[in-house]
Specification:
alpha+beta, 23% helix, globular
Amino acid sequence: MILFDCREGEPDRTGAAAIFEGFFDFESGEVRRSGSGVPRLRIGDERVWGFECWWRPDPERGGLTASDREQLETSKRLLRGLLRDARRGGLRGLPART
């Protein structure tokens, strides 16, 4: 289950069912063990790397729950606060908020 699609410029797949394909080497695409690879998910014909989205197993196919939505909103607030604090602290590479 894709909880939140973090990719820019792509169709938003939040709430979509996904199939966990396993762990892979990001550069070569070769199969890896869980400790040394990046998770990859399939949404229809599209493949998404685990770091491009927030996801969780959903074996009962229950979809997004109220708890999922609450946790996502909390996470987004925390992330916005961290980014704001980093900008105020003068960390390089973060865009200035307009």
